[in-house]
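Researcher: Here's my situation. A collaborator sent me these components and asked whether they could plausibly form a single complex. I don't have experimental data yet, so a predicted model of the whole assembly would be a useful starting point for our discussion.
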Amino acid sequence: KNQVEQSPQSLIILEGKNCTLQCNYTVSPFSNLRWYKQDTGRGPVSLTIMTFSENTKSNGRYTATLDADTKQSSLHITASQLSDSASYICVVSAEYGGSQGNLIFGKGTKLSVKP
Amino acid sequence: NAGVTQTPKFQVLKTGQSMTLQCAQDMNHEYMSWYRQDPGMGLRLIHYSVGAGITDQGEVPNGYNVSRSTTEDFPLRLLSAAPSQTSVYFCASSYSGTGANGYTFGSGTRLTVV
């Protein structure tokens, strides 16, 4: 069964500190992996996307890594800001050919950045 | 601004009532989908469409209907609302179903069924 597991479920850090969020998946056949940021009361917004051949992708203070062999991904946030407080969702796309792709969502990690 | 527009943002229904959640996108995306988000769970696919006139069921389709008469619009209809349908609903669109070009989500509709 295709699954995406995220850890931790929630995390509290102080402003300015770094943190790393984890995503383990069992999705086949794998197409791509995205990290989304979801602010409270808003829809998810894409941060990064990685395909099978990519190991690292950065977007400002966000750096995502992908290990396709172990089926693990991480999202590292550097020098956290209060505006980073949100849920971070790992989404893996399974490729079934053409337009019949299937997204498998993790439950998300709720990050709270405190001053 | 280009994107996915959902209306209404909030809605309270009584059990048994019907309603339509509206979704419109102006990016000429072929692929559109509806998700529900419940506490402690990942987003779950309700219905999706790969183009005008073509729809299909997702993971949790019971109690919901969709149609796609135009590329831009993808309304979600609740036939007879039940408390179990209390949730936050998101509409999303993409160039392709695999999400290779990215999914754009609307800001959501928070529905409460009493």
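Model: Some features of this prediction you could bring to your collaborator: Chain A is about 0% helix and 60% strand. The first strand of chain A starts at residue 3 and ends at 7.
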